Amino acid sequence: MLHPKQKKATNTRGRDNGLRKWLRQLNRQRRIFIVWQRRGTHVARGGESTHECKNCGHTYIGGYCPRCGQSAAAGRITLRSALSRTLEVWGLGNRSLPRTLLHLCLRPGYMIGDYLEGRQIAFFPPVKLLFLITAAYFTVCHFMGHSGLDSVKPIMEVVTLPDNGEPAYEAKGRLIQALNTFSLSFYHTLNLLQRHYAVYIVLMHSLLAWLSMLIFRRSPLHSGMSFTENFFVQIFIATQLMALSIVKVCLLGFGERHFMYELPEVVFYLVLFIDYKQLYGCGYLKNLWRTVLLILAWMSSLTLLLLLAILATVGWHLV
Ligand SMILES: [Zn+2]
Hints:
This protein has a two-stranded antiparallel sheet. The chain has helices spanning 4-39, 79-88, 96-106, 108-116, 126-143, 170-195, 197-215, 227-252, 265-280, 284-318; strands at residues 50-52, 59-61. By secondary structure, it is mainly alpha-helical. It has a domain at 126-318. It is globular and about 90 Å long. Bound molecules: zinc ion. Zinc ion (ZN) is lined by residues 53, 55-56, 58, 65, 67-68, 70.
């Protein structure tokens, strides 16, 4: 018979073993997940059997007729094939939409890399996806009783000088007039962009694309990417942020006004950090430094553009 103390020791050891086993299992799952994240989609080998095309009569090996492009699976119309063809009218007929969203959630940077390297048929066309998800966002907003847009208020009151102002005030009057013009046109431009939200998002991300082209020019995984490639990266990132905004709005509703997305700014920066880490494959510190640099450069460029716009308007009025 065991002494109570010994018995207790055995119990703890048993629990320890259980915990260790569970941790080992968890670690194994984590490693499998990481391998999957890096490898991504895998195209299964097609059968070696011969088909005769039902459309043109050509005999061939593989999944599609090389002469007319009809699928070897084409045959009698079933409910499933009819449904899939109906969805195809809106470009949703294959499995690539849910797959693209899943991969964008679980392995965004790797998926974007796959797409740029030419594994494209597995994924939904990115620009189309961004417009689709923006539409979904506004649908959700509509059902939540919110326009999804904040109307921008004029940044300053329109100031007027009395008509019989003294000559000494003429220059001041013109300056005020110039600032008024700028304020109003800025307000109209912002409102216009807000009403065309997708365009606004695309413009903001274009600037990010150009800056990340410069900052990530040399990287272990994707060196020397062109502006167009970087632009596609940004389209995917925008889609991801838009999808996150939908989730956030559904779970927590609308919060205070945000810069671009209905998301806390920290989420926006975190998404950029994770995506760039997976896509370019830099070390953690280097990636962090480059992401911070990118955000600072982006903010400064926006400020600079705004200042240039003010100077141009004022100058035009004063000359
Ligand atoms: Zn054929």
